[in-house]
Amino acid sequence: MLKIECLVTGDLEENCYIIHNNKYALIIDPGDEGKRIIDKIEKLKLEVLGILITHYHFDHIGALDEVKNKYKSAKTYDYKSSIDNEIDCFKFKKINNFGHTMDSCSFLFEKENIMFTGDFVFLETIGNYDDENEIIMFNSLKEFVKLNDDIKIYPGHGPSSSVGYEKRNNYFLRGI
Predict the structure, then answer these.
(1) What CATH number does residue 104 fall under?
(2) How far apart are CA 94 and CA 105, in angstroms?
(3) Tag placement on the chain: N or C end, fewer CB within 10 Å?
(4) How many domains is the chain partitioned into structurally?
């Protein structure tokens, strides 16, 4: 069973996630406060196997170099990675959802029914996007609403939600 630790980091209160099984861990979006992230991992006595980046805005990667320097063997996964990924006990799909940025992706852990969405979808809203990316964002949202309602989503800012809740309550998903 995977455990999810959320550290809210930096002035923009970005959610950095540490997911683990009490031995191995993945870090998702090390946005800021690298020492705090590392201290948490050390306190839990975890071995970091990978670093997942949902997009490259500064508030999501501010501590990336510090974390990579500490955990040199951990591979970085992002929008350019394979669709299907497996690292020891962690199996996940990378889903590109361009729109907020042209390097946005989410990470779906199907067995655990959880998804890390970065700044793509938040509780009752979506990430901002430039006007020229409106159609691209809309197409990404059309794919999102095809997902299982029971999937719990962990966004880059704010509280968690679920795909089903967002389909019913997110203004931007109505009518898709």
Answers:
(1) 3.60.15.10
(2) 7
(3) N
(4) 1
